[in-house]
Amino acid sequence: MSNLKKKKILLAGLTGLAVFLMLTPSASAASKKKSAGSDPYGINKILKKLMAKKKVSPKQHVQLDIFLKPQNQSQLTDEIYNVNTPGKPNFKQFYTPSSFRAKFGQPAKVTGQYKPYLAKYHLKSHVFSNGLIIKVSGSAKNINKAFSTNLETAKYHDNPVQFSSKKPKMPAELADNVLTVLGITNLNTRAGGLAKKNKKKVKKPEKKYAPSKFSDRYQLQPLYDKGYEGQGQTVGIISFAGFKKSDVTHFWKSEGVNSNPNRISIKKISSPSSQPTNDALSQIETTVDAQQAGAIAPKANVRVYHSNFSDVGMVNVFATAFDENKAGSLSLSWGINEYMTHYLKNNKMLTPVYGQVMNIVMAQGALQGVSTFVASGDSGALGQGIGGKIGPISIPNYSTYAFFPADNPWVTTTGGTTLPFSKKIKKGIKVSVDKERAWGGDYMFNAYAKGRHDLLNNIKLYSYAMAGGGGGISHLYNTPQYQEGVPGVNTFNARQYVSNLMQPRMNPVLVSGTDYGRNYPDVSANADPLTGYDLYDKALGGWQVTGGTSFVAPQFNGATAVMNSGKGQRMGLWNTQIYQLAQDKDKNPFTVMDSTTNNSNLYYTGQPGKIYNQATGLGTVNFEKLYDSYQ
């Protein structure tokens, strides 16, 4: 089974990231200071595995977050349903950042205690509007003094790691309100990027690859005809790489939509990073998101929230967007293999509360009525883990690992499909798809049987065959209430189309089973590069056609802005309504793909007669019908 991001396959798919994950300190008795956070983890258990250790330069700039314990945390989930579910007493009475803080954040009298303490050590601090995050920055020397740490760097299985063998401590009256400290310890896993060689270059944009293919196929055009085009709305793009405005405006102009550069604004959020993500390939992610969201919602503004990727960066970029509260919808086209969260946790290098921290952050958005869309990934159901070691060499294993934060219950996760097409790919070998299906490269396997040598010796064809829309069942987050009892959730049909040796398997048997967790994706649309969309990037050669679920997330982002402009209010968290609508025969706006054949994401298939499957979620959307049915 394959992690296709490691194989560098899709130009605009869900990219791999440098992963920075926090080591959380355990509680300990101290007369003047106590541990800031109560998680039972410590770096000392793996110190013997660290090599090339050295102290962090005293002058090195360090950034971290103090994440405080929320008030009334037990009420968060109920309140999200309360404001997002028709018939509930506070339906559509969305929170503001200040009202969120009043109910769930810490008040100024609590957060105000930290600034004078940190200032004593010449550390700068900033309290987020939600009253939960205190951003801290300064020299390593002063961080060590303020938190009683001893920052060092080392190698962990050849990966650079920053750590402190001493657990962060603060005065007891400050430490008692701390859930965790992010940024003291981080690990760079060197996750892979994406490859430009899989694009199809074209001289100019063609209508068959335009964003209008999405709006026409999924019935968004009738809303345009009513005058709903995203006016008065802002779509937010969460990104961990920069981009060139000129690429976006050139795309918009060529596609016939408003190309005024003033439509785009950028909010940069500083955060630590030891692996740059501003290379040309990473920038494609941001470029695609801005191009697609702005084309689907042609009269909406586009707000890009840009940070370096780290545990601090992921938290702060979302928190900034929610604190600003300008964007009624957001999209994200980045993620990490959920396997890594378990691996690092088991090796005592990951706080088990990082998922909890992100859940709290995303809950703020859901309470404020922000619709957040996250791409499900481009390696199908499959992800790469670590199966063992031969000396210093890690041996990979491939299995159905979920992806983070696509697995988060407070986002709407967008999967991928393949549209009908027929094409000769090499030496007369033909591939064809008769009807829209789950995006999975198994439709190329008959061609593989006829021309095995050609496929295995052509990295482009091989990568297409090993690609698919992400989807599966999370083991980080429990099954959310809106999915409970929905036919197809926590049951599955599957065919193992890829062997452990990364070889296509012909005619695999159908297996069925049950599992429990957050099932994803929620919805799907065309994402296959072979039935893909235009992209313009001057640095990478100009016009090209490619695909990936990175197109789908911003398209749904833009479509939401269109619907918000028509309704005059935010749609909010989709999931609480769409799972109800899918079970209503009269109002159901979804086309389910439930076949068990010619319909996989390289593992999961459809479940005949059931509403949900892990290859395509609830299916594709008729936006006109969704608009009419959605309250």
From TrEMBL:
Cofactors (names): Ca(2+)
CDD domains: Peptidases_S53, Pro-peptidase_S53
Keyword hit for Signal: yes
Protein name (record): Pro-kumamolisin, activation domain protein
Calcium listed as a keyword: yes
GO MF entries: metal ion binding; serine-type endopeptidase activity; tripeptidyl-peptidase activity
Residues covered by the Peptidase S53 domain: 208-631
Gene3D superfamilies to which the protein is assigned, alphabetical: Peptidase S8/S53 domain
Protein keywords: Calcium, Hydrolase, Metal-binding, Protease, Serine protease, Signal, Zymogen
Residues of the signal peptide: 1-29
UniProt cross-references to InterPro entries, sorted A to Z: Peptidase_S8/S53_dom_sf, S53_propep, Sedolisin_dom, Tripeptidyl-peptidase_I
One of the protein's GO biological processes: proteolysis
